[in-house]
Amino acid sequence: MEFFWWPSLRALLFLSRAIDALNTFIGRTVSWLILVAVVISAGNAVVRKVLSTSSNAWLELQWYLFGAVFLLAAAWTLICNEHIRIDVVSSRFPRRLRNWIEILGHTLFLLPFCILLLIDSWPFFLKSYLQNEQSMNAGGLVVWPAKLLVVVGFALLFLQGISELIKRIAIMRGLIPDPHADSFHEQVEAQTARPFEPATTGGTANRAKP
User: Of all helices (H) and strands (E), which one includes residue 73?
Assistant: First the structure.
């Protein structure tokens, strides 16, 4: 089993690194769109107050940019381990249990959810693209690029889910170190291994004698 499993897992790690590199590049790039959105929002507010005029295109462009950052940087968020989780509970689990929770979570929830969203969002985008759907607001933007963001975003998130699954299995096999090892959990494990060793502090030792 070891003979067949390890070489294939090492090969999959190359795929994982490629996915990580792709999503890191996309995430870092689209993060600059936050600055663009802020500039557009501020400029639009100034024009509206000073010149008493505005444009729906600029207003819609703001949520286009927000949607692009939210969807296209979701995979990068997963790489950086910044996604929402109940750390107060998970940090107290043994490391092996946390690894299994990650594997089961990616396999049973994240990946199937991404597949369902891709199946549902593709015809949603395609219909809009074929009709060249326009905004219902006067002077608004074309709608289908925003719907395309949903497809691309969940496709990238699906790929990253595959990458995280590969890395988590490799971590459990001892092929790579855990890049998100929790220092708090390391302290808990160390203290559990030596439960009767008294804690040493310098508070009383450094106290001035009367």
Answer: none
